[in-house]
Design brief:
300 residues, alpha/beta, Rossmann fold, 2 domains, eight-stranded antiparallel beta barrel, 22% helix
Amino acid sequence: MTDVFISYASEDRDRAGKLASALSAFGWTVWWDRKIITGQAFDQAIEHELETTKSVVVLWSKHSIASEWVKNEAAVASERGVLVPAIIDSVKLPLEFRRKQTAELIDWKGEPSHSGFQALCEGIATTIGGTPLHQPILRQGQKVWWSSRWVLATIATIAVAVGLGVYSLSGSWRTTTPKPTAQSDRSKISTQPESKKPVGAVVEIADLVVGSYSGDVIADSKGGSRSNVGLTITKLDGSTIRVTSDYRRLGTINVALTRIGNNILNADGDTPFMVDLDRNPPTLLFDPHSEVAYRGNKQK
């Protein structure tokens, strides 16, 4: 039984895929027709998921309001009391669905802080029996998957509010990092206790994440999930890495790094990246251009 079933018109597949990735990253299990297994009967697979899912998100657009498939799926969801509608185009909804409170995702670009996306998440949480959220739902052992800019801004706000840290603004929010010994480059951070640190040894941000990872593609805007996917991180310089994978959809991408506590994040760009060093082994969350969500563990 999945948490979320996404109903959409075929013309809106890319936007449905982006939403599936975002909701999966929030910890929910998501089903959409891209996940039909080869050999399954299309209508039987959809009917089974529609009748068992905990919530149905219907994406209303200029295409879906004319789709009998989408209207039928919305009707079934409404009868079951699990309908959570969202509007992605400026359209007039079919008459029978106009009374339902609808999340507005017309200008949503994938950011988790978007008010319409937050409203949709609260609707899902309430429908499946949880508590309305202002932050993502997390499964046991998972970390929230935010863009690095939003994380930095959030932490900066909290730090100012409680007086726990000092953040400066110079083009973008920066994090306070431990003062390097005999180094001025903020990317060169020692993580070893003074008593165990070799004389002159410096650990750079990139050194903390390089290595091989093994895990799964948990969502893909142009495909389904995939298990046992390998990924390799190599060092380009002290704060820049290259991520490559044996799965072509993940491709090859360079990532500039920053650090917040024991989380290593993407410093800029449209590719969410986070390595949680508190986990043993360290856990990587990676989503190239917000299209292919990957979660894996560092191999020893």
